[in-house]
Amino acid sequence: MIKKLIGAVALMLTCTAAFAAESTYPLDRAPNRLSDMASLQNGAKLFVNHCLNCHSAVSLRYNKLADLGLTDAQIKENLLFTTDKVGELMKIAMTPADQKAWLGTATPDLSVIARAKSINAGPSGSDYIYTYLRTFYRDASRPTGWNNLVFPSVGMPHVMWADQGPRELTTVAMQEARKDGKPAGWERVTTVHDANGYTTVKREPVANYTGHATTENRFKALDPAKAQAYDRDVADLTAFMTWMAEPNQQQRKTLGVYVLLFLTLFLIIAWRLNASFWKHVR
Q: Under CATH, to which class is 2-160+223-247 assigned?
């Protein structure tokens, strides 16, 4: 038990260090699907097919997926690609040395990333994962051809881009203009990243502006049906990664309710017993 606890803490510290350069982009609220078995099963499939190629999840064994209603036969047939036994950990074939040579850095383990981001990025790691996976955009200036609003200059490409379909990102920034290194009023800068990652920038001077610097990002899906289906898949994947970080969290919450009800009942009994006892003493 202590070894597992130490391992979880080490993984959380690793994930925290790996994501230290992230922005303060506002996070969207992730749908709560932790009690939806079909959603969690789909999330497990998406995780194995898209994430487990480069990222491991060594705090979880494949046979734990039986808690999601999957049989050993279903796990073997649909989810086992890097091992032959359902009792094995969710490891990957690449070693850290291979990752550094091929990808430039060792990829973080994702076992407890939802819990790690809850500490680092606000109250919910689910919100972080959900927003991060939905804010990739084409950027031809990046080595991978992709960038991300939640994690600017991210080294990870958008591995699910084919499922999301093409889209454009328009960023409208109100900022101070500079001329010869000196302030020269305000300007509106509109930057458009098209579906191929090429950028166009338009600058417009704004007279008599009395506000403050702002930035607004807007995505335009060129295939709305695909984009909506992708959002549903990301919600399922987020739910699975949140479950994976603490598989027993639903049982813990249910047990907590029973404990609070018991303590409330015990408090009432103790209060009445105390009143009855002191009534005779007085």
A: mainly alpha
